Amino acid sequence: MRASGDQLRQITTLIDEGVVRPVVGKVVGFDQTPQALQSLSQGGIRGKAVIGSS
Q1: Which residues share a beta bridge with 23?
Q2: What is the C-alpha radius of gyration for the chain, rounded to an integer number of angstroms?
Q3: How far apart are CA 20 and CA 22, in angstroms?
Q4: Is residue 52 a contact partner of residue 45, using CB atoms and an 8 Å limit?
Q5: Strand ranges for 1-54 from DSSP E
Q6: 8 to 4, 13, 15, 24, 49: CA distances (angstroms)
Q7: CA gap 1, 45 in Å, rounded
Q8: Does the pLDDT at position 53 exceed 70?
C-alpha cells in the first residue's frame, strides 16, 4: 500500500461512517511521546482497527 490522496479520503470516509473504528489500547501524554515511539518500534504497542457495519 502506498500513501495516496484517494486512499486517505477513502479511509477517512470509512472512519467517519463508523465502518472502521480505531481501537485505542493505550493513551499517552505528549511528554511521553519518546517512550511511546520506542515501545512502538519494539513491538510493545500495536495499532488495531475494528471493521464492521454501523
Answers
A1: 48
A2: 14
A3: 7
A4: no
A5: 20-23, 48-51
A6: 6, 9, 11, 20, 15
A7: 21
A8: no
Residue with cell string 510493545: 44
Give me the pLDDT at residue 13, please.
92
Cell of 23: 481501537
Give me the phi and psi of 52, to 5 degrees please: -165, 175
Residue type, 49: A
Residue 30 half-sphere exposure toward CB, CA atoms < 13 A = 0
Per-residue model confidence as pLDDT tens digits over 2-49 = 667 888 888 889 889 988 877 777 777 888 888 877 877 777 666 655
Position 48, amino acid: K
